[in-house]
């Protein structure tokens, strides 16, 4: 990231602010809704996946701390009390092995091929949001397949969240959904970051000195957006996101294939 132009740094800053907003507002999608734009600016998948992974660890902890101090003191609960632990353990038991296989795939696949895979997956997800037909798991076997696929894709590119969320929304109360997912992401990303460090991948931690403040701005806006979304489920919001992702991914796929 040392040889970028000034406008690329500016665009990356805005994109990480967007990442913070989406991650906190929806409880997922910090990578899914960010990677297409980052790869258009600078096509280095592993670099940006590692940066997003570290930020997810930081901001998931920050969200729990802020939730604890947000209510009146008499109503405060332990930071992790809003987590559906029984179903979290069930999801982990299914996704953990595919997750590890996916991390290995990330370390062995060529960067250009990884970009094509990422853009292709995001195009599919974007279309489901545009037509307001998000993924749905219909029975126990489909749920297992979704969780395994989500774990593998999460291992390779951190964008398997919609498959996992499609299952989680059927079993976890809305008020517990974001915090439960944050704990799941924290565990899965910790595994991913550990493997990256063990494999000698540079996490580019110095860049967080300027990227974390950018993401923090989006994080604070996302907290407000989350409260609003809990009360007002807006299909238009997701369609706008879907159209933006589709446009970015279409351009990215064209560039990667040429």
UniProtKB/TrEMBL annotation:
Signal peptide: none annotated. GO terms for cellular component: plasma membrane. Keywords: Cell membrane, Membrane, Transmembrane, Transmembrane helix. It holds the Pfam family TauE. It is found in: Cell membrane; Membrane. It is a multi-pass membrane protein. It comes from the Bacteria. The keyword Cell membrane applies. InterPro entries: TM_pro_TauE-like. The chain crosses the membrane at residues 6-39, 46-67, 87-106, 113-132, 144-168, 180-199, 205-224, 236-257. The keyword tRNA processing does not apply. Belongs to the 4-toluene sulfonate uptake permease (TSUP) (TC 2.A.102) family. This is Probable membrane transporter protein. It comes from Saccharophagus degradans. The lineage of its organism: Bacteria, Pseudomonadati, Pseudomonadota, Gammaproteobacteria, Cellvibrionales.
